[in-house]
Design a protein that fits this description.
8 helices; three-stranded mixed sheet; six-stranded antiparallel sheet; 282 residues; alpha+beta
């Protein structure tokens, strides 16, 4: 269900040209939850960003970036400094947009785990949506590590199985084998039509990913891998508002604390729990 400025959507106001955006719109309309927007432009922004997230997932799946744990992470030193924790710190001599694009154009130089892959998709999809000028203005302090994200990449979450292309989901493998701890789960970008992009697995069906994770579990496993109902997605409305005021913002902003947990393939939910525990521990 969609409401714009407190009223049911008048689809004639959209004039969508992209057929995939029309598909996304119909999925939003079919959702029993209400998706609220202050303007048609906010809705159009979400549709475009979701489409570009799927484009980004496809591009990464077709590239040569490898799945690796933090210990084995690699990046192009022309754009990124590899930190001792396996993170990628943007070099001050390059533009943020060029550095993100390089992950796709020179993908063989890169190796990272699946949470980092999802954050890269989030940045890349946004870059494709807003262009280099705005992106470079917003994201001058990029650091890629697990689910750490810039303060202006506002994230939202919900518990639902009504998936919308561009949503990020988590496949949990509760009885994972400690010898292959990186398969404790899989972060995946929902592409639509029962297709999910998971870095290291590719674009596959729900059943394929569940079966694959089960094949990596302990021999004595009793709890099967499952697709959880936790969904991470950008806060599209808030992002749209930030973009509208980007040139009035201060050059300096308070970034989130980085949690170097060294646990490959954790969910966004788990990372936010770690962040919450850090902020509110006594």
């Amino acid at each position: 269900m969609i409401e714009v400025a407190g009223k049911s959507l008048d689809e004639s106001m959209l004039n969508l040209e992209e057929s995939f955006q029309k598909d996304i719109l119909n999925i939003l309309l079919d959702d029993s939850s209400i998706h609220e927007y202050d303007s048609v432009e906010e809705l159009k922004f979400e549709l475009a960003y979701r489409q570009n997230l799927v484009i980004s997932g496809t591009a990464m799946s077709e590239g040569e970036a490898r799945f690796e744990t933090f210990a084995g992470a690699t990046c192009n030193p022309d754009f990124w400094q590899l930190t001792p924790n396996g993170g990628f710190l943007l070099k001050k001599t390059v533009s943020p947009s060029d550095a993100i694009i390089d992950i796709f154009t020179n993908s063989s130089n890169y190796a990272f785990e699946c949470a980092t892959a999802m954050v890269i998709n989030l940045y890349h999809g946004l870059l494709l949506t807003i262009g280099k000028r705005l992106f470079d203005k917003l994201f001058k302090e990029l650091y890629l590590y697990s689910w750490h994200f810039d303060a202006d990449l506002v994230m939202d979450s919900s518990h639902t199985y009504h998936l919308i292309p561009g949503d990020i989901v988590y496949f949990d493998n509760p009885d994972y084998n400690p010898m292959t701890f990186w398969w404790r789960g899989e972060n995946a970008l929902y592409m639509g039509s029962d297709q999910y992009f998971g870095h290291g697995i590719g674009i596959q069906s729900k059943k394929y990913i569940v079966d694959f994770l089960n094949s990596t579990a302990l021999p004595e496993a009793t709890r099967p891998a499952t697709l959880t109902d936790y969904v991470a997605r950008p806060d599209f409305r808030q992002l749209s508002k930030i973009l509208g005021t980007v040139y009035m913002q201060s050059e300096r902003k308070q970034q989130h604390t980085i949690i170097h947990h060294n646990k490959s393939s954790i969910s966004c939910h788990r990372y936010l729990q770690l962040l919450h525990n850090l902020y509110f521990s006594t």
